[in-house]
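queue> pop job 88
queue> type: inverse folding (structure -> sequence)
queue> payload:
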């Protein structure tokens, strides 16, 4: 299994995972790290041929089973759909997508009127993330909004 989680240690023998679009619940019987991959034995799959039916499918865990993050860190899915509010109080739109660029994440903010805005998700621009009210408060640099260019 290719590891795409930041928390591979949660994938231990006995863990319940959900496989594929159908979210088939399966228990991990054995796990062994091999380089950047994880070799797994799944309950009910006793041969390579049987396990081959699960090839190229995503494996999920429930949100309850994900580790808590340190203060000031967020799972990307938590930010999707949040309102983006500028320091002056105006709502710019909602987070439609997040681009992971390597250097920093970029919020794609869908505006009710006008084109989408790309906003770097940088600590220097972030005032606060309010999970309770589903809002991201940002300090925008001058010239970021298209209407400011006129």
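queue> result:
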């Amino acid at each position: 299994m290719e590891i795409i989680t930041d928390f591979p240690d949660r994938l231990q023998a006995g863990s319940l995972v959900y496989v594929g679009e159908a979210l088939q619940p399966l228990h991990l019987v054995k796990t062994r790290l091999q380089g950047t991959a994880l070799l797994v034995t799944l309950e009910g799959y006793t041969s390579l041929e049987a396990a081959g039916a699960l090839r190229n499918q995503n494996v999920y865990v429930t949100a309850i089973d994900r580790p808590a993050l340190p203060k000031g860190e967020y799972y990307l899915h938590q930010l999707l759909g949040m309102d983006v509010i500028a320091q002056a109080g105006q709502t710019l739109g909602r987070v439609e997508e997040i681009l992971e660029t390597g250097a920093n994440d970029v919020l794609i903010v869908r505006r009710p009127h006008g084109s989408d805005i790309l906003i770097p998700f940088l600590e220097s621009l972030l005032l606060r993330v309010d999970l309770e009210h589903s809002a991201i408060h940002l300090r925008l640099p001058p010239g970021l909004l298209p209407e400011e260019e006129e």
